[in-house]
Records
---
Amino acid sequence: MSIYIYGAGNIGEKLLKKMNKYEISLDGFMDSYKEGEFLNYPILPITEIDKNSIVVISVLNTSSILSIYKTLCSNGIVNIYWFKDFSDKSSKLGLEAFLKNECVSLVGWGDLIMPHVELHISDKCNLNCRGCTHFSPLFDEIGAVFEEKMEDIMKLKRLFPEIFRIDVLGGEPLLNPDLAEYVIALRKELPKTFIQIYTNGLLIPQLSEDILKIIYENNIGVSISEYAPTHKIIDKITNRLEEYEIHYRIAAYDSKQKFNTPVSTNANSKYPKLCISDGCITVNNGMIARCPTLMYISKFNEYFQQNLPTEGIYKLDDYTDGNLLLKDMEKEVPLCKHCIQKDIEWSICDKEKHFEDFAVSE
Ligand code: SF4
């Protein structure tokens, strides 16, 4: 059976190295924009690919992955996988081990897919970065109730046969004492979904053996945002994860040193517009919004006595058609006019939180 990588770029190159490690030979690349050759392999048009081939998508953006998936399906290709690009310590070789360890299978997923959902299992955080787009420094409590969070997932399941990706986050999700229950329940309800815990990693060295085993056994990835305090103990963190063979990814230290002030209270701000949460659909207590900034903006409003617009948060129960919900998640909301780019150095909030930690008024 022929094997192709979709995506002739950096991740495609990484994927090729991984395939070499598993002793799998590649037949070529495919790409939406490039033709010719890449790394001495041909870049082939979709029409020249045998329909029984295996195609592994090497793209990170979720909506691009699903768009490529749909294009491949409409051309009769069914053996489609996505490369997770997570670390892996497996010593097994061959195609079966590669697909199991490194990829998410999209075989037989159909048309109606929820691309990406964010699930807060702790509103509060142990780090409290200035500029947090989830406004976590303003929360004092974990807030999440297991039954309510899982009910949100069940409501999504009624609308979507498949959910591609769930990010379990917050705030800091490892603060939640019910973490193991979430991991087990999410994997039970979503056996095919790419599920990852998004964390600053600081609590990983202290996680119990039981929780680490449960994360491994349920095939949950760990995505670490490497802030300065995380960087100081990154070896401890990765050693602990590797000890339990947990797949992980690190969002590089350098990229985490720049942060952004996410909103302006002025809809005609002098700062350029910037959306840094597009596609991060967020569910919370029976509601759904196109991004966490919108879902949690009411906390900012309450804390600083502001009135930024909250329109665009919908009740999951009001939908019977997943396609309509996805259309609503693409519509601009009034808050979008307030999302700006104003670079700041990464730092943590003081005990007393300031308006300027999250917003400007000009
Ligand atoms: S409110 Fe709009 S612009 Fe702002 S983060 Fe959300 S989707 Fe992006």
---
Amino acid sequence: MINRDRLVKEFLELTGIDSLSKKERRMADALKARLKAMGYEPWEDDAGKRIGGEAGNIICTVKGTKNVPAVMFAAHMDTVGPGTGKKAVVDGDMIRSDGSTVLGGDDVSGIVCILEALRTIKEKGIEHGDIQVVFTVAEEGGLYGAKNLDYSRIYAKYGFVMDSNGPIGTVAVKAPSQDKIFVTVEGKSAHAGLSPEKGVDAIRIAASAISGMKLGRIDHETTANIGVIKGGRETNIVCDRVEIMGEARSRDERKLEEQTRHMRERFEQAAAEFGGKIDFRAERLYPSFNIPDDAPIMDILRKAAEDAGVPLVTEETGGGSDTNIFNGKGIQSVDVSTGMQKVHSTEECISISDMVKAAGFVVSIIRSVS
Ligand SMILES: [Zn+2]
């Protein structure tokens, strides 16, 4: 049902466009042109301006031919680096980069699955409800596009984010939320040889706080890490300032709050003990999501998997994606595999037959909305 040659051609053309985060102008223009060529009216929001990027998110609503709930299909336009001068190499059923950059199948594979599915339903006259296509900017490194999307234009009830890996039919239904943690420990400097007793050692405060802290894997759905610690000037000065960055994640919001509170308390207790000061800031990067088995979107997916002849595999993920943001905005969403492999590396690759199956799965999802 899917036009394999056209899909591969489009994949090669689009991965040939440089599209690093916040530098998606050419990609956005190319996608708008393709949507217009199909007879649709893509619209670009002002997220680019708000995040200091070249392009905004693209929203394109395809009017339905039957009265069923609207659905959203999303993919992101940006890639991680090294991503300049990408050259895809077709090797039998596999497409890889030439080894010097990422392939960019993350997330061009999602984009082409959506575009090819739209062409297919049009050509085959497949009945469907309203479809809202969303191509986001700056997903990598902060989900900035999804966070700044113009949600006033989105009325879809269900979202399918084509941006995951695994066998086709794999969907992530659970993902953690994350707090990013910034701590400044302030002590008091003094000469380390002449009058150390006049100083308050920020390094000792930090060490004491961290050594008594629960870190690493807290439980099956909660993790925490101190990733960065900076401070000190000279060995003969009692250190008066240490800056620390860390994170905590959990698929359970309550546990995340508890873990972040625990980390804050450890710093506060240590500072009180040694007579220093703490500035502790936690920033919620994205909310968690947890789609239960009896959610309406799971009915659509079960029907679609049967229609496409793929096993539906539900998964929990440890990462954050646009899917977290969409769920936080009230659009019940899952992250769907396109077959991408070894993403964020120069070994990134994808099998053509997987991508064809993933595009077919998109058509099946569209057919299964009722
Ligand atoms: Zn991605």
